[in-house]
Amino acid sequence: MGYRGDTAFQDMPKIFMTISSDEGKVYDGNGELPPDSVSIVENPNRIEFRVPLSLLGNPERALMAIQTHFGYVPLENVPWVYLKID
Question: Among 6, 7, 18, 16, which residue's Cα sits nearest to residue 55?
């Protein structure tokens, strides 16, 4: 989620991604976005996400959280992280 001082938070895009071993999907508040909206690179030891700032509404700050699951079993939860964008 992005934040700008000159835009109401509820008007900023809210991006949500789901990643599985065979596909990745990207959503905003209006539904599914094209698969090429973000770049997802998987390596044996990590997954890298590249989200264009324009997709987040060219924010001054961003909020991010991550949850991992194996099926319906939660494995890891990274709480909200605050990022200042310069």
Answer: 16
